[in-house]
Amino acid sequence: MIRAVDRNDAETLCNIYNYYVENTAISFEQQPVSVPKMQKRIEKATLPWLVYEKDKTAVGYAYASQWKARSAYRYTLEVTAYVSQTAVKQQIGTQLYEALLLALNDFPVHALIGVIALPNAASIALHEKLGFTKAAHFQEVGWKFNRWIDVGYWIRIS
Question: How far apart are CA 21 and CA 32, in angstroms?
């Protein structure tokens, strides 16, 4: 079941997200996110945040956020999804993204951007399956785990 997130999901979302923070270069955050900090992110959201619930437990989430703060970017959003390590390869990311894209039809959106730490074949495949195309490749813009990490931007124009 996919539903809107609420602040009570914060702990579970932290458990999902912090795996990526602590063990991968997928997130460029370097310190785990606390439950209060995640609750604040949820409460401040003005765009959809969705949760994939399986057996009454959130196993993935996706959300949209403003891409950049300046006014001319107001029709461009960044989209993101994270899936629990216990639920990967079950098409949960795809279902979350599809639901998120549908929810975004209610907003004045022209472009969606997926930001991908590279390499990440699974995320690239997800974005391209849903109509995103590669728009940019930035070399060595992130430093995590004592190495430089490239970032790619994938874009979907509505």
Answer: 6
pTM: 0.95
Band (23; pLDDT cuts 50, 70, 90): very high
Round to whole Å and give the CA distance between 49 and 56.
17
Return the bridge partners of 63, or none: 49, 80
Quote the crossing angle between the two packed helices 92-103 and 121-129, to the nearest 10°.
Answer: 40
Segment 13-42 shows an average pLDDT of 97
**At residue 152, what is the residue type?**
G
DSSP string over 16-63: HHHHHHHH-SSS---SPPPHHHHHHHHHH--S-EEEEEETTEEEEEEE
